[in-house]
Write a structure and sequence with these properties.
By secondary structure, the protein is an alpha/beta fold. It has seven helices and six strands. A six-stranded parallel beta sheet has the order 3-2-1-5-4-6, with helices on both faces. The longest helix is centred in the first third of the chain and has 17 residues. It binds S-adenosylmethionine. S-adenosylmethionine binds next to strand 4 and helix 7. Homodimer.
Length: about 190
């Protein structure tokens, strides 16, 4: 059992080595309405294998909640930040050689896409809120639909990361936290 876990962990890390870094950029966050859902986008980014989460705008509540999770459950290498100008962040990312994948139900369905090339470069995944400016559709390298039906930015980011990580990201270990869960068939075990 121990060997099996180690092999999965090793496969994820070997795969991650050959991949660029993955960041999630949350645009259009409305501090009064979106605190919970934006926090969830950040938590899903961390748990599903991204290397960082960047919030457009200023909302210390979101950044604080995610930072608390990092202290408690680990993953201090995960970067959490905020930017005033998300378009400038996208432009800088592209100028540095990275690719940009904008998640939208109007894009090309992920099922028909080859994610191999995308994974070789640094990848910025852009997740929107209510209305996304046309600029993102025009400036993203990829407009990707997680199915062409409306649903949620939390689900879209989770499935995108899971496809990029081939599911292996779920076996990743998070270091540096105070607590660690030992999964149980029943009950809770936390070390
Ligand atoms: C409330 S939805 C708004 C739906 C939006 N009209 C759109 O273009 O996808 C907020 C965000 O969730 C993500 N999203 C929702 N459904 C999606 C889907 N089927 N595929 C990819 N992303 C989706 C997008 O990032 C979108 O900006």
């Amino acid at each position: 059992m121990h060997n099996k876990c180690f092999n999965i962990w090793l496969r994820f890390h070997i795969m991650a080595e050959s991949m660029g870094k993955i960041y999630v950029l949350r645009i259009g966050h409305r501090p009064k309405r979106d605190v919970r859902i934006t926090t969830h986008v950040g938590l899903v980014s961390r748990a599903f294998g991204a290397d960082g989460f960047i919030l457009e705008g200023d909302d210390p509540k979101v950044v604080e909640s995610i930072s608390k999770v990092l202290t408690k459950w680990g993953g201090r290498d995960f970067e959490v930040g905020a930017v005033e100008d998300a378009k400038a962040y996208v432009e800088k990312w592209k100028a540095g050689g990275g690719a940009v994948a904008h998640l939208t139900m109007y894009g090309l369905n992920i099922s028909g896409l080859d994610l191999g090339a995308m994974r070789k470069r640094d990848l910025l995944i852009v997740a929107g809120a209510e209305k996304v400016d046309r600029w993102y559709y025009d400036n993203a390298d990829y407009n990707i639909a997680i199915g062409n039906q409306p649903h949620s930015e939390v689900a879209a980011v989770a499935i995108m990361l899971d496809r990029l990580g081939n599911g292996l990201e779920l076996d990743r270990t998070f270091t540096g936290g105070r607590l660690r869960i030992i999964g149980q068939a029943r009950g809770k075990k936390v070390e």
